Amino acid sequence: MLWVLDHNGEEADQQDSMISRFNFFYQTNGIYLSLKSFFFLFQVQTTRITKLCNTKDIPTINGLYPGPVVYAQEDDKVIVRVTNESPYNITIHWHGIRQRLSCWSDGPSYITQCPIQTGQNFSYEFTLVQQKGTFFWHAHVSWLRATVYGAIVVYPKKGVPYPFKFPYEEHIIILGEFWMKDMVQIEQAVLASGGAPPPADAFTINGQPGPNYNCSADDIFKIDAVPGKTYLLRLINAALNQEHFVAIANHRLTIVEVDAEYTKPLTMDRVMLGPGQTLNVLVTADKPIARYSMAMGPYQSAKNVSFQNITAIAYFQYFGATANGLSLPAALPHFDDHLAAKTVMDGLRSLNPVTVPKDIDRNLFVTIGLNVQKCRSKNPQKDCQAKGGGVMAASMNNISFSKPNFSILEAYYKNISGYFTQDFPGVPLKFYDFVNGAPNNPPNDTNSLNGTRTYVLDYGTKVQLILQDTSTVSTENHPIHLHGYSFYVVGYGTGNYDPDTANFNLVDPPYMNTIGVPVGGWAAIRFVADNPGAWFMHCHLEIHLSWGLSVVLIVKNGEGPLERLPHPPKDLPRC
Fold it and tell me: Which residue ranges of the chain lie beneath pLDDT 70?
């Protein structure tokens, strides 16, 4: 069930036909839309579904997979009451929402809140301050986001047009992964083994795997296209452990937005999204009448990793095409085509010149990568299945993050000691040739330190952060997500970062919340720490997060009344 309360009785602006369209959709389902304040009810429950010849119970929101879409407009206030009727602990993260002075509603478990336990509820409240575009929400506890996810669509203010030709229709395209086994059991088994996770049993487009998979001939998402019309596709990668290429046969995709920020138009034959990334693309139905495949396939940058290599298919089908005819195939890059992945990022630019922080107060340098810890189990064949008989881990600056059993934000706010330290190093503990000369004799020289270490920033600090991939175990493209902020990607390259040769774009860099640090390369980001709270920064490949590839940035309060973290909500879940 989804409720939206109307606080001012306004109807959608007739000039905004998309909002009018959604008004009609909601009202025909007994749901009402306000353009100022929204109230949603999310019921976490288990739902029985059948896919790939297999029936299983999965955790969902309101019995939907993918979950319900949250529609709003820029500057609206959103309230989502989450009631947990499932057997699992749950939290919900509003990915890309900057949570201005609402860190308590950000959602990562044991970072900003304790989980909502079975039978409990919690209301997330946040305002979409100067934000519009495509976002998504997902579970942020355990591996439940494999099925607990959905889109957030935030439209411009009333009367404000898109900076491109208004599309004939919009469609949400959510990329996902599906496993036939229970995800909580898979997570527990993987972490207990010390080894790598199993690949997904299928890729999905809007929850449907398509005809390439067993028992899936009718499980296909389809867009019915009118010849000559242009469509806006809101692409969201909600996958757990895999990055993906997307293409539509014989059609070009024009990127107009990345991570809910407008970009200069960039036209490509295919795009690549890491988990946590969103892209808005325009596609015009200007080809001969036919059924065209929309394909989703893997981008696998790490070496010696098993992965699903069967393509998920949807249809971009012109009106007039033979209903049961063959679909024209979409060409995807080879699974390890690093250049194809990098080409997308190379061309991204903000729509207009932007104000990039230039007088940097704090320069941070953070290595990201994998580790193999020494085996300390009495049953190594069962518990130490990583290379060299070790245990897989991941780290930032060679420190694997250990999640506490209490909310870091609450401990920080209430000055409760013992749950975290404030000594995360701002530079690597040791400098070396990160890409070509990293330690690689597991587990003898590939260990990391463990700890719940945070890094503290004063309010208003202008930050430059270099993210450097390393080759311990394997180089890899890492989608790094920063909660509570967007950032300017001012630099991006292969090899080791060198400040003397790096080229920075300080005029119109893209403004993002999740950056794919390139395989064997680096990315430079800049932001102003002007949102107080405890903000999670982590790899959005879920297995890397479980292994410890994360850190918490604590931003102190400022001096003014709008620069201080409010009191915690009364219904904040207890551990």
Answer: 1-36
